[in-house]
Amino acid sequence: MAEEPQSAAQRAIGDFAPKLVELTDEVLFGDVWERAELSPRDRSLVTVTALVALYRTDQLGFHLRKALDNGLTKDELVEAITHLAFYAGWPNAMSAITQLKDIVQSADRPQRSSD
């Protein structure tokens, strides 16, 4: 029987904080993120803006990638972060835009095969 792939939380802290991983996987992503009242795209926009405003840079990269996967475009995220600069602070926006730029540029780079 093949093992199920591990979640990001399981890979990051599974051995260290299994209950936090369980709550993250089952409650946050298994329930809250799956509720029909907001689309995954809208949940991503809300989450990214909260993380930018609160300067939660450790979690921001994961959620910027998730936002792109959930249908937000690079231009929409740039615009949201630019808008937030006036409400959440310039340093917050500059840190967020730098992370987004790195994510977009790394996604655009062709992957080299290892020989």
Morphology: globular
State the helix count.
6
Helix content: 55-70%
**Biggest pleated-sheet summary:** none
What are the low-pLDDT stretches, counting only 5+ consecutive residues below 50?
none
Query: Beta-sheet strand percentage?
Result: under 5%
State the secondary-structure class. Answer: mainly alpha
Number of strands: 0
| Cα-based radius of gyration, to the nearest Å | 16 Å
The ordered string of helix (H) and strand (E) elements is HHHHHH
Characterize the structure shown.
It is a single chain. This protein is mostly helical. The protein is built from 6 helices and no strands. The longest helix is centred in the C-terminal third of the chain and has 19 residues, at 90-108. The chain starts with 7 loop residues before the first helix and ends in a 7-residue tail after the last helix.
Write the layout of secondary structure elements.
Layout: H1 8-13, H2 18-29, H3 40-53, H4 57-69, H5 74-88, H6 90-108
Helix pairs in contact: 3-4, 3-5, 4-6, 5-6
